[in-house]
Here is the input.
Amino acid sequence: QVQLVESGGGLVQAGGSLNLSCAASGSIFGIEAMGWYRQAPGELRELVASKSSGGSTVYADSVKGRFTISRDNAKNTVLLRMNSLKPTDTAVYYCAADVLTVVAGLAARNDFWGRGTQVTVSS
Here is the structure.
């Protein structure tokens, strides 16, 4: 089993900064992509940023230039640095990982999700 635990959400004023971190643990053989999604009330969950094991990054257009994703492959952690926050960034942020596990000799690749952390940006 694999667990993702997020930390770092909270309340911040517009223009402020927050860092979100996520650590994956469990029966992990490798992680291909690791990143962050968010879901605002009444909205669909959307990709915020993702980083592959090879270093390729993807950002939502709405956060380009403001958010930075980094990853420590050895520690199975991912960090999202969020600057110049806007009220429209308010959402529950979820860590997600595309994980390869090997259990009893059987390999499997699945997506795992954290429970989410609330980010609220006040105007």
